[in-house]
Specification:
Structural class: alpha+beta
Number of strands: 24
Number of helices: 14
Helix content: 10-25%
Length: 564
């Protein structure tokens, strides 16, 4: 939150996973096996959700990018801790300052930086990165980017950019100009030998795993305690859980309903940080090619009140989740941004009678089979979730049962990750059980802009066309009232004015429900606390802790040290 028109940050620097087991590098699962010089002679073993076979893709803008690229290899200018309302920390950047009207940001980067191929990292790379299409989509508002010296970049926009601070400073990946200026089509570029600024570089990529090693050109290379990181591929949560219990994984972010099953080995500890909304994506926009009953807002509204979230929380997520708000404010962190207390949380108990009233008011009639229909079409929808994501799979089954009680037919099934990714990218689905990327600052603007913004903020993609890089409007939602409020919120530095604009947005999205909120996901992280120190804990939650966290993973890894 910005308290003054002009401000300057002096930012602290970053301180200095059966047959799959055969693919794990280094020594046995026994321990850290320190070599005596403060480093480990085996890789720290990570599962970040990757499935087999792994395909080498280290393009940070690709939908199927390998997790290790996002933070450990490529970095933004600054790190924002999404678990708290705190000051950002300098990565590539040293400080940044807004001008009087918020339309210009002057960024100072650290001196003497290098890319992992040894070439200098300068303000020219920063300028190139902000001008690069993937970082500068339509509606971004960038007027110019100029390097005034080796360590200073001046970014000028057509309107004040206070509300987009995280997007600019904390999630725009900085690219080496000498590599990416030669890339003709960044959407198809697999970038198998990535040149980045982060603490690690790629050593090897196979179908079963990929390995990163310490980047000798990293600004704090001498302080890196973990010299090797191996990301493994498994096809389901249970296999990863078995590897954790056997001591063959050191770091994983996943849902385990019985955490004691993996902590009994004396190594693994865990932390739960509910952060990201779990929702039903709906392909909602018939005008852009979406098909199915869910394109009718009345059907979405009826399904919303037919869901028993209390039962889902207990049976699918064993009570570890938080309550979701239909405003997409994270509670309690963002409570001040909820304009209408009636919209604070989604209904927690099912109300089949109310669902029926909504459908009947919209012209639907309940048939002898118990399901509603209109114009001869039964209210029937397919709901997919990723095979092996047991919590989501269980929740989808419960939703299908609960919907049936309200006269709505939902057919739950599972698909492989790639099919999930392709379908949501192209809009060729009806309902998907999935997650929304939570905001990285104590403000829901990021979700409003990236997940709900339409024509005035971005080009809303028609079904069959992939969502542009850096945008997440998988529902194809387009609402000019929301667009106008989002655009106005970009430029305001007045908290009261912003809350009023957010109230406008919330009224629209709570009614329209292009994403039907379910819970705030139980974000469990499991980590080897015996062999490594420096993990985010409840007492020191310096970063969002799961292994799959973009950017945050690149902040956590350099903080880890093998135990002596």
């Amino acid at each position: 939150m910005i308290s003054k028109t002009t401000r300057r940050y002096a930012l602290a620097a970053v301180a200095g996973a059966s047959t799959l087991a055969l693919a794990l590098t280094g020594c046995s699962a026994g321990g850290g096996n320190n070599s005596g010089d403060g480093s480990s002679d085996r890789a720290l073993r990570v599962w970040a959700g990757s499935q087999t076979p792994i395909e080498a893709n280290y393009n940070p803008f690709a939908p199927t990018v390998l997790h290790g690229a996002l933070g450990p290899i490529y970095e933004p200018l600054f790190f924002f801790n999404k678990t708290s309302d705190s000051e950002p920390v300098g990565l590539i950047g040293e400080s940044y300052e807004y001008n009087e009207d918020g339309t210009q940001i002057t960024v100072k980067i650290k001196d003497g930086l290098k890319w992992n191929d040894g070439k200098p990292l300068t303000a020219e790379d920063v300028v190139f990165s902000f001008n690069y299409e993937a970082n500068n989509p339509e509606g971004n508002g960038l007027v110019s980017a100029e390097a005034t010296d080796e360590t200073t970049a001046v970014l000028t926009y057509d309107s004040a950019q206070y509300t987009t601070e995280f997007q600019r400073m904390g999630s725009s990946y900085i690219l080496p100009k000498h590599i990416w200026s030669e890339v003709d089509d960044y959407m198809t570029f697999t970038n198998e030998e990535p040149v980045g600024s982060g603490a690690y570089k790629v050593a090897k990529t196979t179908k079963e795993s990929y390995s990163l090693v310490a980047n000798p050109e990293y600004r704090d290379a001498d302080d890196l305690g973990v010299k090797k990181v191996q990301y493994i591929a498994v096809d389901n949560n249970q296999t990863a859980q078995d590897l954790l219990a056997a001591g063959k994984l050191d770091w994983a972010g996943m849902f385990i309903p019985n955490p004691d099953s993996v902590t009994g080995n004396g190594k693994v500890e865990w932390i739960n940080t509910p952060q990201d909304p779990t929702v039903l994506y709906t392909c909602s926009n018939a005008d852009l090619g979406c098909t199915g009953a869910q394109t009718d807002v009345a059907v979405r509204q009826a399904l919303n009140v037919a869901i028993d979230r209390n039962t889902i929380k207990e049976k699918a997520f064993v009570g570890l989740t938080g309550d979701a708000s239909p405003t997409f404010a994270l509670l309690p962190r963002d409570e001040k941004w909820v304009a209408d207390a009636a919209n604070k949380t989604s209904p927690q108990e099912a109300d089949p009678a109310e669902a029926g009233k909504i459908l009947e008011a919209a012209g639907y009639v309940k048939g002898s089979d118990g399901f509603y229909a209109k114009d001869g079409q039964v209210v029937e929808m397919s709901l997919t979730s990723v095979d092996g994501w047991t919590d989501y799979n269980d929740a989808a089954k419960l939703i299908a049962e609960q919907a049936a009680e309200a006269g709505i037919k939902v057919n739950a099934s599972t698909v492989q990750w790639q099919e999930f990714s392709d379908s949501r990218q192209t809009g060729q689905y009806e309902l998907i059980m999935g997650g929304v990327i939570g905001t990285s600052v104590a403000d829901p603007f990021q979700i409003y802009r990236d997940w709900f913004g339409g024509e005035q903020v971005q080009s809303t993609s028609a079904v069959g066309t992939e969502i542009p890089s850096g945008r997440w409007n998988f529902s194809r939602y387009s609402n000019p009232v929301v667009d106008q409020a989002v655009t106005a919120a970009v430029s305001t530095n007045d908290e009261a004015a912003k809350k009023e604009l957010y109230g406008t947005i919330q009224t629209e999205i709570v009614r329209d429900l292009p994403y039907i909120p379910l819970v705030i996901n139980a974000t469990q992280t499991f980590y080897n606390a015996k062999d490594y120190t420096g993990w985010p804990t409840e007492d020191d939650l310096y970063a969002f802790p799961p292994s799959w966290g973009a950017i945050a993973a690149g902040y956590v890894l350099p903080k880890l040290k093998p135990s002596n």
